[in-house]
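#help-structures
NK: newbie question, is this the right format to request a structure? protein is 6-phosphogluconolactonase
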Amino acid sequence: MKTDFSKCSYHSKDLVFPKILTLLICIFSFNACLLNPIVQCILFPEKDPSSKSWFGLLALLASSNSVVELNHTWAGIRKGNSLQLEAQYYSDGARTDSTFYWTSSNDSVAIVSQTGLVQSVGNGKILITATSADGRASATSAITVYSGYVYASLDLNDFVGHLTMDNSTGVLAFSTTYNAGDGPTGIGVDPSGKFLFTGDFYGGSISQFLINQTTGGLTSNTPVFVAAGLNPRNLITTPDSRFLYLASEGTSAIRAYAINPNGTLTFLNSYPTMVRGEIQISRNGNFIFYMTPSVTEITSYRINYSDGSLSQAGVSPTFPNNGPGHVSTHPNGKYLYVGTFPDVTILSFDSNLGQMSFVDSVFHGMSINSTAIHPSGRFLYLVHINEGVVSCYTVDPNTGKISYSSNVSGYSGNSLRFMVIDPSGRFAYVAANTGNNLFQFSINQTTGELTPMGTANAGGPQWNLTFL
């Protein structure tokens, strides 16, 4: 005899035990419960539609007790090397045997086997995801594939210096220098590692280079330069390598360019702003920030990825400042760190809307030229240009707040400029605008403390650094 459950006309007393039994089954077999029409009919009587919401909440709570944990939540891998990721599955707090389904967000950067072995392919940032066999939980690891090349803009010599990092010791070896425009200051590479650009402050141009994928050597592109307005400084590229944005300080504008497949730039538009030299991009790549000439607030612009156009999204609360400033973004995308004098200002950032709000302000009382944040998100560094000091602060990733930890000093008179950290988080490099040498440091992975490792010849006084 065929039973028709389509009308679900049962008395409530008769349903008490079946409901409880079926609910227990559903908690431990979520997919089967949702797909079974009989179960749906019993649990979701038409006379009480709200029970669907009630059951959905219980199912969500059941799934929330399932967690996947990875042995690396972030990592940097030298191009050509591999990394073994390991996953563990916990259900209701107890470790449970499970297989995992592994995926890469971009196979051109790295691929992952179904045993969790990540093999690097090309430069870039990706997410590797491990999903439990029952589909209830997953976890991601943020992976950066790097080549180990440091490029320095040598503004006093009109060069770009090229150095290579020893992957074991972190020590940089000088390769050579390449001719750039007049006064290269800002410097950057596209995330795929194929092209390099400098903002030539006195030449009003952007120098365009091709990067040799085997050696890291540079070749001037054709044309060698593209117009960049007056006094171009800092520049950024989008994560998909499609657009470049430049702070044109002399014309008080942000200039937008398309990055063509051959690495040349096509000018798109200019956005008049009272922009200073500093420009930054959000971790999700959807917004750029710039600082006003007074350096007392930050404005965010949303990037339209259909055409590269910009539209204003938000303005931060004002903060005290009397000098240059620099912005770092936390790897979780939730916080901005604005290094100014006399304080570090911490702002929360809405990565959907581009709006900012005040979190905290920490006094440091020294001059400042730049900031850098560790790829783990646990340490923030301030570069004090006049005092010759680099300070380390620990970061609470849950609140974004910072507390002073340590510093390295004794670099007064070297005009410290900018700092880069290698994607593995083991080494840091600081540009100096006097002499030919930049400064090298190892990083304590527990405390963030910097230990000097001497200097490396960069080919001339450095203004800025970029790591590929």
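mod (FA): yep, format's fine, and the tokens are attached above. The chain has four helices and 38 strands.
NK: thank you!
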